[in-house]
Amino acid sequence: DLYRKVFVFRKDPSNAYVVLRATLEQPLQNFTVCLRSYTDLTRPYSLFSYATKAQDNEILLFKPKPGEYRVYVGGKFVTFRVPEGHRDWEHVCASWESATGIAEFWLNGKPWPRKGLQRGYTVGVEAAILLGQEQDAFGGGFDVYNSFSGELADVYLWDVGLSPDKMRAAYQSLRLPPAILAWKSLSYEVKGDVVVKPRLRE
């Protein structure tokens, strides 16, 4: 249970990462991924990387530069342009549904204009799920200049698109539906220089 705790990725650039273990019963037709990050990086970095042997960017949450987030599904991506933060915690959620090919992006509890992405696609299940690095091969192929440095918390993955109420609940750290990956019952393994610490402030 990582309640009120954070992963601190100490180095920049870094070869460290955290492996998340999830049991997926079937391929994903829908998903929502949420997390909170705190960093002063201005170079590109990866927040959440879900790779299969067939596709290294099966699901990827990536920040190429200040004021921009990219959401990848099956190797294709859409860009969400956001006001650059005030060096504070940023809470992001990305959801996607295969039937409509709609990608949603929420920043600090607010939705951005929806975009179209990979209609009819299915996300594979045999996945390597990593925090802090971007996979260019299954479970590896890292570029340290895409690594994350800073603090990460409140990581979740659902196999459904969350409702707007639940998106806001995730931002406010309220009670959430059962998830494939849940911060309060996370199965993880730290690889390299990552430290679990109490959160300094809300």
UniProtKB/TrEMBL annotation:
Superkingdom assignment: Eukaryota
Residues annotated as domain Pentraxin (PTX): 3-202
Annotated family: Belongs to the pentraxin family.
GO molecular function term, any single one: metal ion binding
Pfam families according to UniProt: Pentaxin (PF00354)
Subcellular location: Secreted
Major subcellular location class: secreted
Source organism phylogeny: Eukaryota, Metazoa, Chordata, Craniata, Vertebrata
Annotated disulfide bonds: C34-C93
UniProt keyword annotations, A-Z: Acute phase, Calcium, Disulfide bond, Metal-binding, Secreted, Signal
Cofactor: Ca(2+)
PANTHER family: C-REACTIVE PROTEIN (PTHR45869:SF7), C-REACTIVE PROTEIN-RELATED (PTHR45869)
Full protein name: Pentraxin family member
Gene Ontology biological-process entries: acute-phase response; innate immune response
Cofactor binding, per record: Binds 2 calcium ions per subunit.
SUPFAM superfamilies referenced in this protein's UniProt entry, alphabetically: Concanavalin A-like lectins/glucanases
Subunit structure, as described in the record: Homopentamer. Pentaxin (or pentraxin) have a discoid arrangement of 5 non-covalently bound subunits.
Entry's Gene Ontology cellular component terms: extracellular space
Encoding gene, per UniProt annotation: Ptx2_0
